[in-house]
Amino acid sequence: MCQMRVMMEHTSGCEQIMEDVTALEVTPGGVVLSSLFEEPRLIAGAAVKKIDFMATVVTLCEGAGPHG
Description:
By secondary structure, the protein is mainly β. It has one domain (4-62). The chain has no helices and six strands. It has strands at 4-10, 13-27, 30-35, 41-44, 46-52, 57-62. Strands 4-3-2-1-6-5 form a six-stranded mixed beta sheet, with no helix packed on it.
């Protein structure tokens, strides 16, 4: 099973938001992250910036719409 780590990019750097993420859903309100043993978590106003499959890391950014 492949589980991802999710990072939030800020102007000052990146912070880890959640690890062992098994599902990610982009919604109009932001990004919903799910894992096996936690309730789904909405990251309001976030957008997916980058997915690195080799490093199993998803990077989110703030305030960007679905088209940047």
